[in-house]
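hi!! sorry for the late reply, been swamped w classes. u asked for the two structures so here they r. pasted raw, havent cleaned anything up. first the sequence of the first protein and right below it the tokens
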Amino acid sequence: MITAQFPWLTAIIALPLLAACGIPLLPDKDGKLVRWYALGVGLADFVLMCYVFWANYDISNPSFQLAEKYPWLPQIGLSWAVSVDGISMPLVLLAGLVTTLSIFAAWQVDRKPKLFYFLMLLLYSAQIGVFVAQDLLLLFIMWELELVPVYLLVSIWGGQKRRYAAMKFLLYTAAASIFILIAALAMGLYGGGQMTFDMVELAAKNYPLALELPLYAGLLIAFGVKLAIFPLHTWLPDAHGEASSPVSMILAGVLLKMGAYGLIRLNLEMLPEAHVYFAPILVILGVINIVYGGFASFGQSNMKRRLAYSSVSHMGFVLLGIASFSDIGISGAMLQLISHGLIAALLFFLAGVTYDRTHTMFLDEMGDIGQIMPKVFALFTIGAMASLALPGMSGFASEISVFVGVTSGDVYSSIFRTVTVFLAAIGLILTPIYLLSMLRQLFYGSDRALTCGLVDTQSLKSGEEKAVCFGNSCVLPTDADFSDAKPRELLIAFSFIVLIIGIGFYPKFFTQMYDVKTVAINAQVRNSYQQIAEINPEIYAFAPKIQEVSELASSLDLSH
């Protein structure tokens, strides 16, 4: 069929890129035409990917699908090789949805609108390219390409410290991505013969453990920076604190997921033996992320920095799921990526909506706006409830899957699992504390005295313009729009909320997209564990001996 032979993935990547090149030609001076143009392109690309995956993707097949491969630089083994599987396909859809809604959220951008939307569409293409690249060197190129628009979007349209935040983001991520290039070259050159960067061919190679371990460590640093693993996370609060809300939506909703995608795609799937040795380290780092992110979030007075540290905490659950050695644990990690992408994008969007009204991000300058903006209050409450894993929402489904995966695993000792779950539970306790306190500071009354000194509100005569006061600040109606959520804002918010609640009530609809693949990856990792544990039964001090696991399994079979 022609539809099966058509280069769909190349078209999905090329559409936003080619459309971005046409933006300078638009006869638009005030930015009204270009924003509709960018939104139309983003929506068209998202609809295209939905159609392609619905019509041509088989969820029961764990292999790469819709594969395209064209020689690019055959002298060095570089090819334009793209494909999708159960790990990449859901993240492509997530990137398309979040980026399209972020473009819609940037409706009020009036400073260099053509450049802004050009960069947004360029970022759209680069994100998709990262998730569908089957050539490891191509993945590195797309990874680097994505850095440029993010740097410019933060440094031009950010806050007062935007240049510092943008440069910190660039230095952290660019320096760490060098390890991806080094790993690609080492894996491509290993074994002699013709150089190749095709992931299928690289995964088929039998690397010695002495090579796998440093490769795994380097890739953990590269992807750990993007995933905001402690202590490589410090760029994230600064970037979120200074970036505009549409850019923060992409940072939290998509860019963090690239780090987790890299860990699953390369570290787990291609370096399974090294993962056996590093898995306990990932568990420890995950617990640190959860607890540290929760405490750090509670101490932030800037609303977006509080949400940024909340993302650091939630990414800890992804690490726990990846290192759980269980099908449901890895499935929970994938679901957490999708769930957090939706929830974080919603919360950062609502933070922007609130900022448009109050002109501040500091919680101690807010308050008393719940009655003025009840719709925004309701939307923010729904987002917060989803983030704190309220049953019936996506956050609960993903985090409970990770917990079950960790507790039901048979690789780590019961003591290690108990301590892990106990410490991770502290993060669950901290989450409602810092989120509900944020809602209280935002929307409820404040007994602090006004300090703005904008106008003596008591002496305003009848009929004159009255100041609108909130928290310990106040502005005139001409300086701030205190209207409730508008139709455009409601549409964006409900686009996220419908999916968040849908995942919460029926997670299987989403997990079936990738379960076949995650089960195959976990089987490969567990097979590597079995082989290593037969040689070294006490591979780590807190793991049970492989003989004990075998005896337990035998006894369970006999009793059955």
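now the second protein. again sequence first, tokens right under
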Amino acid sequence: MSDNTTDKNSDYMKPDGEVNPIDTDYTIGQDNIVMNVGPFGLDIHNRVFGVSALLIIAFVLLTMTFQDQAEPLFGDLRGWLTSNLDWFFITAGNIFVLVCLVIAFSPLGRVRIGGTQAKPDYSYLGWFSMLFAAGMGIGLMFYGVSEPLSHFSSSVGGIATENGIRTDWAPLGAAAGDNAAATQLAMAATIYHWGLHPWAIYAVLALGLAIFSFNKGLPLTIRSVFYPILGERIWGWPGHVVDILAVMATMFGLATSLGLGSSQAAAGLHFLFDVPLGDTTQILLVIGITAIAMASVLAGLEAGVKRLSEINMVLAVVLLLFVLVVGPTLAIVTGFFQNLWSYLEYLPALGNPMGREDTNFSQGWTAFYWAWWISWSPFVGMFIARVSRGRSVREFIISVLIVPSLACVLWMTVFGNTAISQVVNQGYLAVTEGELPLQIFLMLEGLPLHSITSFVAIILVVVFFVTSSDSGSLVIDVISSGGKVESPAPQRVFWCTFEGLVAIALILGGGLVALQAMAVSTGFPFAIVLLIATASLIKGLISEPKIGKG
């Protein structure tokens, strides 16, 4: 069909060129409640907003009220899910990577998001900055040093057993006493968690949202991806449930990241300025940074999120280049290619879902990561979809899958290899003895100008915190308003506020264990949603007109 098709949903740009839109009588906002509460206007999907908000408010109140009981409950929940469902998470991750590669290198890759004549809304630099800042921010700061060091230490320590069961946390078969082999295994395991698999999870949902919104003319909300399977039923309770799950997954996935960010910012402030550690400092940080995120949310995507993402990208590159230059430069440069090779070499074994002996690693690290990435996928997927109009499907997948993966490899190599080199070659053991949130600051202490670089690292954590919170609030608001991209500001402030409250509740109710437990528990049901969405995406792509040949 041509691009002259009437667009009933004024929130969206009309397609440019040929598309194959879905013919439905549904219009964006038809099930919404529009009202004024004092001076504030509201425009909310009555069921999605209502159920999601009530569930989140109830969670915050119950967790705050029963803090002592919450911590063991969260610990047991996380343990049960990762130990019983590790095979499911690992298998799902493999499926998403394979689907992305098949789509990219098949004729489906010649579909263009937004129509055959659509042009990109953002330059490559602006696009990549937003992809990277939204998708990985706080996690890279938190785990950039601590994860490679953790895997190295457990690998070089070798396998430990008790009553015939492995008790060590080393990946695969470890590398007892061999520093070089332990380094390569550690970096391969780290890159496995930050490379193709998480970006494939994001890419699948982001592509589905983009195609069904910009090409098919449906609302930019998770339920739209299911139209080929559910048809008009997506406007009823099946669709409501999908969107509610997406809101809950996004909320708790973000809360996990915000909790990590606050603990790391608190550790950095204690390290530099002797600010007291503890829940109070973390909570004050959450409150302060949430307030900054609100200001960014109110400024909108272009003035707020995009500008902060670009600032963050510049700061991250400056810090990375500094460590590259003053650290073990030659080892880092050669390590980048060696780490890539090691990743590819160990990938089949790391991605094996069955018969694993390294259960602490596969359950405690990989299963948690995959659940965390999946819980982030509605947020990151919708955000990527909104900024990717005009890209071909092949360009989209290659860019979303390969470019950020390589950036993550570079980041982990620079920070991880530097820290491991400090331990192995300089005998600098302080970096291994600090708590996880503090290890990046201890690594920087072993380099020149550590006071300045540590301060830059704190700023990076804070701004990553803000970009995650504000872009997450925008996305949750779109889902809970029935797909309306532009909605009243108080709604975005509501979601931004509750992201902070959920993070505070989880910090008080068990800290890191509680944060991880909720990411895993919401990631599991949404993994099932995502697998079904993948099949629906392929059906949707098949019917779209293609560009060019090949």
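hope this helps!! also noticed smth abt the second:
Residues 279-326 form the longest helix (48 residues).
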